[in-house]
Amino acid sequence: MTGTLLTLVAVTGGVYVAGSLILRTAPLLGASALPYLTDELLLRSFTIFGRFPDFALGTAAGLLFLSGRVEGAWHRRNGRLLATVTAAGAAVLLVAAQAGMVRDEADPMAKWRWDLLVAIASVMLVLALTCRPAPLSRLLSLRPAVYLGRISYALYLIQLGPLGNHLVYRLAPGHQGVHFLVLYLGMSLVAALLFEVVEEPVRETVLALWRKRSLVSPASVETRRRRVLSILLLVGALATQHALWALGSLPPVDEARVRQVLGPDSPDVLRATPQAASVEGRSPRVRLPVSWRRGPIGDLRAPRSLLVFADERPVPFVGTGTATSEAYAYYRHGRAYDLSLQMAVPARVTVVNHAPGVALALTWSRLVEAPVALMAPLLLLGAAGLVSLSRRSEVWTPRASLSVAVALVTSWVVSGIHLQRWAPLVLMLELAGLLGLVLSRRMAAPRASPMALEAQPLGTRPDCG
Predict the structure, then answer these.
(1) I want to staple 346 with a disulfide (CB 3.0 to 4.6 A). Which of 153, 181, 310, 434 is the partner?
(2) What is the pLDDT, as a whole number, of residue 461?
(3) Where are the alpha helices (DSSP H) in 249-374?
(4) Residue 129 has pLDDT above 80, yes or no
């Protein structure tokens, strides 16, 4: 084991030296267009030349555990106390590393060097958790904690991507503690969905192919949990189609509806007289409230979505882009404090911060007044029929149901059916088709005939007693 550890240390040093050589030779070889080979921060933070010590520490910890020395330490008289102290020390090191990163925020390379302390503390914590009788190990052995551990890889993959931070942050922007909690819970739900729909089925399929086993287990298809999940996927597809059609059929929002729903003193509504351009060639503008700005700390930006009315007439809002219409509202850049107007100076401008809560209130006020809401009871009746039939018959597997659901929603959107007046008829036909398929599978379920029972050997007949 000592030789293996020395080899890891030597390889770690060699990889670090190789990264230093790449930083010096890549520009000479004409690789200046490859930032991950020429920028030291990117190379150390995102490539093996900077991250190899983390892997080496993890490998060393695994070898140490397999040697039995760690488990032997836990079996001693004060092993449980030693594991608890080790875990507490790891937590202290993690806090210290985080404090160091905050202190060196202005120096990215100095901030990166704290990662090694994070890796060391993580190794200590993982090894401490191998002591099963320790209090922290018993706490993290509870089923909710184990499930969070199972979805942690999916959470790691989406945390900074469009499915994680970006998606959830739009629904709950802010910087208070409750917003961070909502952010974590929302990303955990997305990670759990990806784990159940993508990661776990793919893992089972790969293992089945590797071990040369059948991909379909008839016994598992008959379980109640899988049947209910299949039905929920199909009903969810129908509900999504209905929601897309309902939203596409709503009348546009006018200023009168804004006054009716949000009231005259809403903090999400700004009524102002635009400032004329002080420089020739520039557009008139309106200063937006500071409280409307959203984004991570240190990167506050103007709101993404606005409703703009000039003299009670709607004006298209294009963000930082441009429009083909003669009059539109826009930002000069993403961090702008002013809303610019590409039009003659109006007498009065009304601007609505179209945040998720405001959008939901305006949409709901139109839904309850529109006849499209009458479709909801029919959809619920159809869903109830599917659920009741699923209790008595075999339906598709969850994977097949997911494929059907994705196909229905995709065809609905791509073909533009959700924008047509006759879309409810298509939705009812789909519902009738699904009910018919479930009924046909129920009627086609094989039954053992008396002749078949007579033909069976005595030892294989079912016990009727």
Answers:
(1) 310
(2) 43
(3) 255-262, 356-367
(4) yes
Q: Phi-psi bin for 236: left (phi > 0), alpha (psi -120 to 50), beta?
A: alpha
Residue 260's nearest CA partner among 366, 146, 337 is 366
Give tens-digit pLDDT for 388-405: 655 555 556 676 677 677
Q: Where are the domains of the chain?
A: 2-144, 216-249+370-443, 255-290+301-353
Give the neighbor-by-neighbor strand order of the sheet with 349-353: 269-272, 349-353, 306-310, 313-315
Local structure of residue 329 (DSSP, 8 states): E
Instruction: Kindly state the tokens that stand for 200.
Output: 């776990």
Residues for the chain: how many in total?
Answer: 465
Q: Please list, in sequence order, all residues whose beta carbon lies within 8 angstroms of the beta carbon of residue 422, skipping any fewer than 6 positions away.
A: none
Query: Which of these, 315, 317, 307, 308, lies nearest to 361 by C-alpha position?
Result: 307
Edge-to-edge, what's the strand order for the sheet holding 328-330?
285-287, 338-342, 328-330
SS3 338: strand
Instruction: Strands of 276-353 (E only): list them.
Output: 285-287, 306-310, 313-315, 328-330, 338-342, 349-353
> Of 390, 371, 97, 114, which is closest to residue 249 (Cα–Cα)?
371
Provide the 3-class DSSP secondary structure of residue 268: coil
Measured from the Cβ of residue 441, the count of other Cβ atoms closer than 10 Å reads 15
What's the rounded mean pLDDT across residues 162-172?
Answer: 62
State the average pLDDT over residues 199-205. Answer: 75
Measured CA to CA, the distance from residue 309 to residue 351 in angstroms comes to 6
What's the mean pLDDT in 428-435? 74
Give the tens place of pLDDT for each residue, 56-73.
Answer: 888 888 888 888 888 888
Q: What is the three-class DSSP state of 243? A: helix
Q: What is the mean pLDDT of residues 238-266?
A: 83
**Helix (H, G, I), strand (E, B), or coil: what is residue 342?**
strand
**The one-letter amino acid at 105:** E
